[in-house]
């Protein structure tokens, strides 16, 4: 049985008949078989056309009847060839449309599978629980930030003492040291004669200053100046 007879007599798998129609894959396979069959038919007709042309040339005017018959057969073959060209164009268009439809069907099917999978995943999700979870995460992040800030801040050990009290105690200690230094200084005896006028007083102040400088050379400059001021006041 030829492919053409098989096609027009409805040849096909019993499974396709049982389902009430062929699947897209089966239909595409049948269309490709038909295209292949028609392409071979084209080759056959083109060969017959060339053969009839050769017969017409051979007889020419010597045997007009045979030459004309050959040309008539050539015309019929050309008409069949033109019809096959149109049929092939229609089948090609139908095959492309079926391929696109099958592709779209597969795409939609896969998208449906994906939608079902997403629905199944979201079945176990509660929006209220998600909000609570995000709130807990935010709170824990705030706690972590506070802990980090507390760890990185400067330690305040010993800052409970009053700085003004400490400064007062320090000044008191310095004053004690100053008084102790004053006790260690030996002043010369007061002369029995009366002191001269103001120039003599200035000389006595200068003498006292030299004595203090000799005995307190290791002390700070600020302490020397304070002692000098006290002695100068006494001398005056």
UniProtKB/TrEMBL annotation:
Localization per Swiss-Prot or TrEMBL: Cytoplasm, Cytosol; Late endosome membrane
Membrane topology classification: Peripheral membrane protein
Gene3D superfamilies: 6.10.250.1710, ESAT-6-like
Disordered, as annotated region: 1-26
Superkingdom of the organism of origin: Eukaryota
Compositionally biased tracts (Gly residues): 9-21
GO cellular component: cytoplasmic side of plasma membrane; cytosol; ESCRT III complex; late endosome membrane; multivesicular body
Keyword Coiled coil applies: yes
Alphabetical UniProt keywords: Coiled coil, Cytoplasm, Endosome, Membrane, Protein transport, Transport
Keyword Ribonucleoprotein: no
GO biological-process terms attached to the record: late endosome to vacuole transport via multivesicular body sorting pathway; protein transport; vesicle budding from membrane
Family: Belongs to the SNF7 family.
Protein name from the UniProt record: CHM4C protein
